[in-house]
Amino acid sequence: MYDIENFFLHRYAEKSHPKWLGFDALFPPSQSRVSFASSLSSKLLKFRMFWKNYIGRASEMRCCGCLGFIRKVKSALRLAGSGSLEPLLRGGDADDSPPNGEATDPLHGIDSRSKRSEEILMRRLQSGNLCREVPVKETNHLIRSEDENGNKMINEYVRVRRIGSGSYGKVVLYQSSVDGKCYAIKAFHKSHLSKLHVAPSETAMTDVLREVLIMKLLDHPNIVNLIEVIDDSKTDQFYMVLEYVEGRWGSEVSGTLGGLGESIAQKYLWDIVAGLMYLHDHNIVHGDIKPDNLLVTSTGTVKIGDFSVSQVFEDDNDELRRSPGTPVFTAPECCLGATYHGKAADTWAVGVTLYFMVLGQYPFLGDTLQDTYEKIVDNSLLIPEGINPQLKNLLEGLLCKDPKQRLSLDAVAQHPWVVGDEGSIPQYLCRCKRENSQRENLVSE
Q1: Which residues are 242's β-sheet partners?
Q2: Mean per-residue pLDDT of the chain
Q3: Residues marked as binding for ATP?
Q4: Which of 63, 108, 214, 304 would you label with 287, given CA atoms 20 to 30 Å apart?
Q5: Would the pTM of this model clear 0.85, i.e. be above it?
């Protein structure tokens, strides 16, 4: 079996990464990243100088030139000519890259953030400090067959239809021949993902295994549940069996692109914030909040999915350098090359998602990646006249360009527009929090 825990333990013993020169090459040795971050105008000037030079180098290196915001080789440079905005609206998809393709993040530097995430996850799992009452099933054998009707099967699961694609693989609907329930199964090719570099020392397979470790910890009504992992060492396939969220994103149900109306948007936002508060309370940054990663059940409950670019922290220090997943949902501070706080970037993405839900369009969208980044950093937020004043206030707070002044999720949970008839969003008392509280009470006695 492709033992996930052992995989990461071996990674810890590796030698230091070879030095990677990226955005840091712009700064003289005497200039610190902190001093650079102190001047926004200086940031923008250097960013644009870097961008102009980097695009030229990226063309020669067959890199997409997108600063790691997406992992699509070449497509970003052809964006203006193709007329397609799709690369701006989604993250990378390994299915569309050649098996030996490589996409790197020049901002990543000698970043041990991912390794630290893995170490934290390992410690939490080994100590039993997780929220789940029922552990994820781990299966180390794979039987591919057909049922009596000729439908393909993976172990007990009968194929129904393909329902989409994730960051690195396809997503297929299967029905269990044991319990009769439907499940969404994400399928990956290990050899492909092991060759697909998303950073100097990180492959797409690293991201997938980290996603599994994260989901092993989680149990919340607004988080998609991981049921089983199928990994046979004798095969190249790797499967994640997830709960099937049968409903669709509201824009598809209504037949319109966004513009769901305030009541639906308020209900969806309530669920999104509840799920994200739970993640942040466990020091997990999602990194790619957007409608594509928000699934809606038939009863209207929103569940957050796709943790392929998520990171875990030991404490409240949530500084990151690796760029988040999708350009249009990227916070301004992530466009400037310096470190940023992951939780604040998640909150910005919530603001973009709310803007889309209510108005049916994105607040900052250009014709190219460069144009989009410049609008995110430079342009003022435009909100139509006549919009609900409370909603306007919330959007302005979520989409504040200064992350220090941006609304926190706790403030969003108490905001008048969010509270509505549902009431404020309460803190979720999960299993690990309950057990920690009980231990503290015993010690105090």
Answers
A1: 184, 226
A2: 75
A3: 186
A4: 63
A5: no
